[in-house]
Design brief:
Blueprint lengths: L1 H18 L7 H6 L2 H21 L5 H11 L11 H38 L6 E9 L15 E12 L6 H16 L24 E7 L1 H4 L2 H7 L10 E9 L4 H5 L7 H7 L4 E8 L6 H10 L4 H21 L7 H15 L7 H10 L9 H22 L9 H19 L4 H19 L5 H15 L7 H42 L2 H32 L1 E3 L2 H27 L3 H26 L8 E3 L4 H15 L11 H20 L2 E5 L6 E11 L5 E13 L14 H14 L7 E4 L4 H4 L8 H6 L4 H9 L8 E4 L5 H11 L11 E3 L4 E3 L5 E5 L16 E5 L10 E4 L9 E2 L1 E4 L1 H5 L15 E5 L6 H9 L9 E6 L7 H6 L2 E6 L12 E4 L6
Parallel strand pairs: 3-5, 8-17, 10-11, 11-12, 12-13, 20-21, 21-22
Antiparallel strand pairs: 1-2, 1-4, 2-3, 4-5, 6-7, 8-9, 9-10, 14-15, 15-16, 16-20, 17-18, 19-22, 19-23
Helix pairs in contact: 1-5, 1-18, 3-5, 12-13, 13-22, 15-16, 15-17, 15-21, 16-17, 17-18, 18-19, 19-20, 20-21, 20-23, 21-22, 23-24, 25-28
């Protein structure tokens, strides 16, 4: 019952959080019920349930029979429980069931109340305000224009007023001075009136919000903006400053899951109790004084623990500033080695860039960047050992009053909680500290409770304290990994004891005589380490695929030596340097230099290993859902339970079902011709991939499929737009991950439909390689260049001129010598260029693009995908918007339709035709009106007269209704899901593209 109730509590709370957004808000829940009171009630109910279930446990008839027969062997009466005891037993069971049901129900109420409380304080609409901003904790990243990193910081905002005019830093300094003058004259802070901007704000539910501040290098490159944003990195935790902000509500769950990477930013921000996001417009140069800061902290009703945490965060900030000294004189690799050293010490990952994070993800050791239980436990053990040594030398009489293990335990608990607070009190660190506390209490009370039950109790308690912790991936990975380690250790210890008892007696003398005992023991340790790593990799694979959608196969190998290197080398030296830093910063720097050199060598080794051509396919992509996870659990369940409890032969049926399900999911992505619209993170940059299964004349599936990738930049050339913030590295990594999740192992072709000025210049040596690489016009060609290093690609079509493509490849090989593995030649994408499949069923044709004309506005290449009418049951191409969070749940694109065109098309109820009619999908990429003006004058596409066409483009397109009419367009789809001006007569409606 213990495991059943605990599991149901977590499942029910997750279910409530999943459906809470669709439930009506009940203000009375927030006003009358406090989550802290509910958590206390839950703890009391759980203690009562445990005590009641253990208080009265009558002996069974078999036990009584055994006891009686031991006293007298001549009689064997059958002892029956009296009616009173039976009634008490039934009553106890009823009370236990009621308490268990109440525990589950109150847990659901706790999740609902926590959600309603968060909803009551969230930002509901975009707004520009001036506010008093109090920094909370250390920033997630550091503003650095050279490294192109932005500033992200959690903060508390109060004293909000709508911004009716733009404020300068001088204006905010005047507001700060007036605010301080008002405090000193004992005026009411809430009645502060400063110019026309200080009016009551009725659109917000409360005057206190927890938000995520952000500022980006693009905004700070202007001299004025750079000057006022330069001091953002100097803001300490707890510091208060007036700022003008652009507030925005959190993205909805649907908007968050449509991100290119599938990262659910809504759940991530909700898990951190963020009410909204804010972009910094301007900031005062002066902060509120320290005395006023303490007054603001007291007025915000912060607990003493929160104040202690603020001072600890200031220590973390000072340590970051120490590491940041001389940062820009270091090389990029040295900077990242130093950043990882800081992350392993304090959990501060603000200095780690995207490339280093991707390197650790590819190696399968990204979990080592976080402060794990190993860090906390090691520091606690070291300090406890030092404390015991000091007591032994200075005051050994203490052991007469307090046992030695209790002295060690109290020191370990104190060190664990202080270090957990110092590292941000993340889930792994908090779990370790609370487990040390709970295990010590079990030993003090002499209760026979297993460590696994303590682990489950901690998981439930953390969920009661903060239900949103169930949305954190670290929560699940931490508790599941520890549970698997404990289970493996129990089985391994039992097996090792049996084996050593049987073999040591017979082999020890022989091994000692031959001098091979150390070799045998070393082999045994190596084998146990590999078995442990293999066990963890297989057991954590389902939840890893469910949470992240991919898993690194490199982790099975690299973790074998990386965990030992970090656990027994890097982390102890790093923590020792942190302790020495309190006494001698100079000596600590010398030790940190040694640690940084080790990490730098490790990075170089991992980088070399991951670039080996034979081992380039490191990612495992598998569309997975909860049903597959349950089947995987059923497969490994016989190995998790004690030997003989369940026959391991029972794992074969779910294993076969799992294999068939995974295979069916993989095949479902390739069975139907599909054009996926891939999100890129830039509303003007589009990416779409065509998956078309090859068929022979008989209609049977062939051995291969056709996959074409289409990239375009739809920024109009005759209108000002913001430049793209995407980088080629980020875009290529995103597209590669999306293609991998769709089981695409190779590309038959890549088409860049937008011309690139960086490839059309005549002077090859006009720009140095680094300048060429950083050019915004080379974004899409560079993306193709990096993408082809990971995926075999047969053809590359590029719109416009391609004179500088060889120079671009050479520059990339110079700047990325380890990543450059292959090269591909570029072909001109110009009007009339055609590719046709082997069965002549699919063809791809360039409709526009005239590079011979000295006008870049007519170089953009529009593509037509044609399916010829054949004698088969061929299915039409469906157009889906790719869902990165769940590729199998990708939904049909929203379309606009000419009603007269659709009326001429066959319906689903029409009888099957002997010949499938031809169809066409036009992928438009024009950035200027001259493209289609020239097409209207020069081209007459006879094929379009007999094909029903679907139009896929962007709302900024300059195409005219006449062109759509000549192309017999029946359906219009836009990448940005906005109305196309030439299609205004069309009726917008949701329809599936499976039956156009």
């Amino acid at each position: 019952m213990y495991w059943l109730v605990g599991g149901l509590i977590i499942v029910v709370m997750m279910g409530v959080l999943a459906v809470a957004d669709s439930m009506p808000s009940v203000s009375s829940l927030v006003d009358t019920i406090s989550p802290s009171v509910l958590a206390l009630i839950l703890v009391v109910m759980s203690l009562a349930l445990i005590m009641l279930s253990r208080l009265y446990t009558p002996a069974t008839p078999a036990a009584q029979l055994t006891s009686f027969s031991s006293q007298t062997s001549s009689q064997s009466p059958v002892i029956e429980l009296s009616i009173t005891k039976r009634l008490l037993l039934i009553a106890r069971h009823i009370v236990v069931v009621i308490l268990a049901a109440g525990l589950i129900g109150v847990s659901a109420l706790q999740a609902l109340v926590s959600h309603q409380q968060a909803e009551s304080s969230k930002i509901t609409e975009p707004l520009r305000v001036q506010a008093l901003v109090t920094i909370e904790g250390i920033s997630d990243s550091v503003l650095d224009a050279a490294a192109d990193t932005g500033y992200r910081q959690v903060a508390i905002i109060t004293h909000l007023s709508p911004l009716v005019s733009e404020l300068t830093p001088q204006d905010l300094d005047n507001i700060t001075a007036s605010h301080l003058a008002g405090i000193q004259s004992n005026n009411n802070e809430n009645s502060l009136s400063i110019n026309s901007n200080s009016i009551n704000l009725d659109t917000l539910h409360t005057d206190r919000h927890r938000i995520l501040l952000s500022a980006y290098p693009q905004a700070s490159r202007q001299p004025k903006a750079a000057k006022q944003f330069a001091n953002l990195a100097q803001l300490k935790p707890g510091e208060t400053r007036w700022m003008s902000l652009a507030l925005s509500p959190l993205a909805t769950a649907e908007q968050a899951t449509s991100s290119p990477s599938g990262f659910d930013s809504y759940r991530w921000l909700r898990g951190r109790h963020i009410d909204g996001v804010a972009r910094v417009l301007a900031t005062a140069t002066q902060s509120v004084s320290t005395a006023d800061t303490e007054r603001l902290v007291a007025s915000s009703s912060l607990s003493h623990l929160s104040r202690v945490r603020m001072y600890i965060d200031r220590g973390r900030w000072q340590l970051r500033q120490h590491f940041y000294q001389g940062w820009h004189v270091l090389t990029g690799d040295e900077q990242q080695a130093k950043a990882v050293t800081l992350s392993l010490l304090t959990g501060d990952r603000s200095l780690i860039n995207r490339e280093t994070k991707e390197l650790y993800q590819l190696a399968g050791i990204s979990h080592l960047l976080a402060i794990s239980g190993t860090h906390v436990l090691f520091l606690a053990i070291v300090l406890a050992g030092a404390a015991v040594m000091m007591v032994n030398q200075l005051y050994p009489a203490l052991y007469r009053h307090v046992p030695r293990w209790q002295v060690r335990w109290w020191v370990m608990i104190g060190a664990a909680f202080v270090y957990a607070l110092f590292t941000g009190f993340d889930v792994p660190a908090a779990r370790t500290a609370w487990m040390l506390f709970a295990i010590g209490l079990m030993r003090l009370s002499l209760l026979p409770i297993s460590t696994m039950r303590v682990l489950l109790a901690l998981a439930v308690l953390m969920a009661w304290r903060d239900p949103y912790v169930l949305w954190q991936a670290g929560y699940w990975l931490s508790f599941v990994a520890v549970a698997l380690l404990l289970k493996y250790e129990d089985r391994s210890h039992h097996h090792h004891t049996l084996v050593s008892t049987q073999t040591n007696i017979s082999s020890a003398h022989q091994d000692k005589a031959s001098g091979r005992l150390w070799l045998r023991q070393g082999w045994g340790v190596a084998k146990r380490v590999f078995k442990l790593q293999f066990w963890l990799f297989i057991a954590l694979l389902p939840i890893t695929l469910l949470l992240f959608g991919k898993a690194s196969l490199w982790g099975l190998i690299i973790n074998i030596f990386a965990i030992g290197l970090f656990g027994w080398g890097i982390v102890p030296l790093n923590l020792l340097a942190g302790l020495i830093y309190l006494l001698s910063p100079t000596l600590a720097d010398e030790l940190w230099t040694f640690v940084t050199a080790i990490i730098l060598s490790l990075h170089q080794l991992i980088g070399w290993l991951t670039t080996l051509p034979a081992l380039s396919a490191a990612w495992l992509y598998t569309p997975i859902n909860m049903a597959i996870v349950l089947m995987m659990v059923l497969v490994i369940l016989p190995w998790l339970l004690p030997r003989g409890f369940i026959s391991r032969g029972l794992a074969l049926p779910p294993l076969m079902l799992l294999m068939m399900t995974v295979y069916a999911n993989q095949q479902s992505l390739m069975a139907v011709p599909t054009l996926y619209l891939l999100p890129t993170g830039d509303q003007y940059i589009s990416a779409s991939v065509l998956q078309y299964p090859m068929t022979d004349d008989s209609g049977e599936s062939g051995e291969d499929e056709v996959s074409w990738l289409f990239l375009a930049d739809h920024r109009p050339s005759d209108a000002p737009t913001m430049p793209s913030r995407l980088t080629a590295e980020a875009l290529s990594a995103t597209v590669a991950q999306q293609l991998g999740s769709l089981s695409i192992q190779r590309l038959h072709g890549v088409v860049v439909q937008s011309s690139s000025a960086a490839l059309g210049q005549r002077q090859i040596n006009e720009n140095p390689p680094k300048a060429l690489q950083a050019s915004a016009s080379a974004l899409l060609p560079l993306t193709v260049l990096q993408l082809t290093q990971h995926l075999p690609t047969y053809q590359y079509w590029q719109a416009g001129r391609i004179d500088r493509w060889p120079a671009l490849q050479a520059a990339y090989q110079v700047t990325h010598p380890a990543a450059a593995k292959s090269s591909i030649s570029a072909q001109r994408c110009e009007e009339g260029k055609t590719w046709q499949s082997a069965n002549k069923e699919l063809s791809i044709t360039a409709m526009t693009g005239w590079r011979q004309i000295e006008d870049a506005s007519v170089w953009d290449c529009t593509i037509a995908i044609d399916l010829s009418g054949i004698k088969s049951s061929r299915m039409p191409i469906q157009v889906l918007r790719y869902n990165a969070a769940a590729p199998l749940k990708s939904s049909a694109a929203s379309v606009q339709a000419f009603l007269d065109r659709l009326a001429a098309q066959p319906s689903d109820s029409s009888p099957p035709q002997r010949h499938t009619p031809p169809e066409r999908i036009i992928l438009n990429a024009d950035s200027h009106a001259r493209v289609w003006q020239l097409w209207s004058l020069m081209c007459t596409d006879e094929r379009a007269m007999s094909a029903q066409s679907r139009w896929l483009g962007h709302s900024t397109s300059s195409v005219t209704a006449d062109v759509l009419e000549r192309q017999r367009v029946g359906v219009v789809i836009t990448h940005d899901d906005k109305i196309l001006s030439a299609a205004l007569p069309l009726e917008t409606r949701e329809t599936s593209m499976a039956s156009p």
